[in-house]
């Protein structure tokens, strides 16, 4: 008799599970639409917000980035983050339902196209400070190889930091736009990988290869590693589709 859960992969409905970040984004959006945070309101500091919400600063930072991508807030360097005049017609959350396997396949395809371009530009344009951020996030992933949630949090930060290192605002916004449904997909895929292999070493090594290639100014290793990540994601979606 073997231990552990065997059988078919989780249903796609699990991929749609609302994450801590999603919940925080929804709560912040309600405050804006409900008038609690009118246009011009300065958001609390990340540290204060994290403490009051009982979440990590990284979670708050990710939620703020999502709101930025949707046009709800803007961050002014050295001043703070402020609520913009809301336009309800602009707010259309991207929800993928149980019958949207084909769209998840397109999501994985789009992710490869967007991030390949990001890696190529980051290898040319990254700064020393951005390399340090990427290296630190790779270390965090390495330390969290048996903890899906901690690994996923560092993983999400890594891909945004990578996009920032490309110094292309359109690509950064594109990455921010797909990260919520992508995070939902990755949450269950990583859980499956953890169950099958006992840790997330494969994913960690691929992220390390991306960071090292960017540091060396050579996008080749990073794009090859991205290809492996995408291949696993595509296989997982195919399994969900039956």
Automatic annotation (TrEMBL):
SMART domains for this protein: FCD (SM00895), HTH_GNTR (SM00345)
CDD domains with a match to the protein in the record: WHTH_GntR (cd07377)
Pfam families: FCD, GntR
Organism: Amycolatopsis silviterrae
Gene3D superfamilies xref list: GntR ligand-binding domain-like, Winged helix-like DNA-binding domain superfamily/Winged helix DNA-binding domain
Top-level taxon: Bacteria
InterPro entries named in the record: GntR_C, TF_FadR/GntR_C, Tscrpt_reg_HTH_GntR, WH-like_DNA-bd_sf, WH_DNA-bd_sf
Annotated keywords: DNA-binding, Transcription, Transcription regulation
Name this polypeptide is given: FadR/GntR family transcriptional regulator
